[in-house]
Write a structure and sequence with these properties.
alpha+beta; endopeptidase fold (from Nostoc punctiforme); 6-stranded antiparallel β-sheet; 5 helices; globular; transmembrane helix; lipid metabolism; transferase
Amino acid sequence: MAATACPGDPQPGDLIEIFRPAYEHWALYLGDGYIINVTPIDEGSAAMFASAKSVFSRKARVKMQLLKDVVGNDCYRVNNKYDSTYTPLPVKEIIRRAEYFIDREVSYDVLGNNCEHFVTLLRYGERVSDQATRAVGAIGFATVAAGTFSLLGLLWSRSREKHY
């Protein structure tokens, strides 16, 4: 598969944001065209990461792959978006940490330990994920909204009972 022309000239240690149809997949650039990323154990390809299995998977495998193979027909960009909040580790340290994980099995949780958490841990020594934060916020909002509608429904049905 040939990668779609995308902006950016990744350097070793850079965070790579890959735009999938329904979400962003994150990887860390190692150099020479290779990235490191996590993929669910039950799936063979990072391009299939969008399937429902990845949401429910509890284990992932850390893989070193060619950026162009992982990107496929999607687009990507270099996105070191947390550099203003966290100080990146020295590049040699980032790469050393990344190489330690290659071919290892790691725990995976779409909200608490996802692909973005993994690569930010390598680059900054901190697990960070805006995707997970947005998802948790959306879940919290939906829960509050559902609770509010349930309460309003209960109050409405009680008020109707009093009138009869």
